[in-house]
Design brief:
The chain is mainly α and 172 residues long. It is built from 8 helices and 3 strands. It has helices spanning 8-21, 35-40, 55-70, 93-100, 112-121, 125-128, 133-145, 160-168, and strands at residues 47-52, 78-83, 106-107. Helix 3 links the parallel strand 1 (47-52) and strand 2. 8% of the residues are buried.
Length: 172
């Protein structure tokens, strides 16, 4: 289901219910400029903004940061995460930081084979290859954000058996 199929008021009710059962709720939002996004984003406690090291991605990140600012979301609630930063590109990390007027807080390693395999097989990379540099970077980032708690803390706090069942199905 995508955000175009669910009215934002219904989503916000569902989000409140999820927050009651889960310590962390992760929402993948590809577009920040929709009415749905503008209704949902102010409800978020923390936002990870992923950006690749290319002009379209940096332009989109700049637009997203502008929208988040308009919505009154404090900069300290936003973590910029760089992906696909390659040394062969004409852009430097310094160029990106200067253009966005914001620090890049984390950088995920460039491991296209592992990511492509994960996407093609439908297996969660963090579970199928936990020692992969990409998996370790994501786990470390989540741990730092959670103030030292493990990445598994995003599962329901009320039922450890449910957590084990979901992990066995590759959902977490």
């Amino acid at each position: 289901m995508n955000s175009d199929e669910l009215p934002s008021d219904e989503f916000l009710v569902m989000l409140d219910q999820l927050k009651q059962g889960f310590q962390n709720v992760v929402i993948d939002m590809p577009r920040f400029h929709t009415p749905f996004a503008r209704a949902v984003l102010p409800q978020m406690q923390h936002i990870f903004l992923l950006l690749a090291f290319n002009i379209p991605s940096i332009r989109n990140a700049s637009m997203a940061l502008s929208i988040l600012s308009e919505l009154g979301i404090p900069k300290e609630c936003i973590t910029l995460v760089g992906t696909d930063f390659q040394s062969s590109a004409d852009l430097t990390r310094k160029d990106v930081v200067q253009h966005l007027k914001s620090e890049i807080h984390a950088q995920l390693p460039h491991v296209p084979e592992a990511i492509l395999t994960s996407v093609n097989t439908g297996e969660a990379l963090l579970l199928s290859e936990p020692n992969n540099p990409y998996s370790q970077s994501v786990s470390g980032m989540v741990t730092r954000l959670g103030n030292g708690s493990s990445a598994v803390s995003s599962t329901p706090s009320a039922s450890p058996n449910l957590q084990q069942k979901l992990q066995g199905k590759g959902w977490f």
